[in-house]
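#struct-pred

JT: dropping the chains for the assembly here, can someone run the whole complex?
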Amino acid sequence: MVEGCAGKGEAATEEYLATAAQPPTAMFDHLYAELPADLRGQRQDLAAAREPSDG
Amino acid sequence: MAEATLVEAVRMALARAMADDETVLILGEDVGLDGGVFRATDGLIKAFGAERVRDTPLAEGVIAGVSVGLAAQGFRPVAEIQFMGFIYPVIDQLVSHASRLRNRTRGRLTCPMVLRAPYGGGIGAPEHHSESTEALFAHIPGLRVVIPSSPERAYGLLLAAIRDPDPVVFLEPKRIYRAVKEEVADDGRAQPLDTCFVLREGADLTLVAWGAMTVETLAAADALAAEGVEAEVIDVATLKPLDMPAILSSVEKTGRCVIVQEAPLTGGFGSEIAARLAEHGLLSLLAPVQRVAGYDTVMPLPRLEKHYMPDVDRVLAAARRALEFA
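RK: done, full complex below.
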């Protein structure tokens, strides 16, 4: 059972590490049904300033 | 068209929303059989039944938590917290769940709930019954914070809040619950959220306020007009998300701004507006932004309350500082 659990944990870890990182702007996704105008500037600033990175 | 007070307009909006949408539910302390301590839900249990208008235990965290659950399962709960002073146990449910349920589930679950609360002072109430801590909620990502300033606005904005797919904190300035009556058309029309409203146009000074403070602000504008100064009065209405372009546009015209809030000065929502004016409107400003606010004290008990509450004289003093700045 322990070996089975360890295997599942390792598989889940590998799946996570193999999953591409979302773009930084994803933090603005699903904040509201529709992103309010007041926040679009922040999202644009982030999009302009950042490069995607793993982590 | 019938006239209504602000609290009557709230009731009208609730009734309209419940008639139009069977998923709308009301819950809270004394909202059912008693009709609410301010009568905001008077008659609704008779009209819509105890299944849809529910008296809850005296447990604000439960009220909010149940609302989150109901909203996530397809209902549109409109929860009442009896006074803003009792809202603090709710903050965990708002911050940890309501405001981020959509984000956490990447849109799989949403939280279309409204949390209503009478707020503000000026009614000579005991401790905990005169709070103005709207800035706490405006700080939470994923929430809307809406504060009506008139019966018509209360009707239309509450309908909009109930229909909104995201959680809304709807704060009702109880000092003006019955202070004004005006015509309110029970036509089911919502007013726009995320939008400031210009209550009075002017070119010499911008006065920004929300909730009950619009009363003192408009009175100050009248007094200034008698002196030949035309002040533009802006009702923020939706604190979050903020319609900053409307305020910037006004200050671009007038060059001077006074922000009026009942809440304590430090960390109040007026600070956010002032900061954004500094960031995006600096070149329009002819004088420092002035803030008129409550003092950084606990709201005093009735005998000292009038000394705490921003009044017309304090708004006028701030206006003159802005106008006379060299």
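JT: nice. The longest helix of chain B spans residues 6-20. Residues 248 and 277 of chain B are 7 Å apart (CA to CA).
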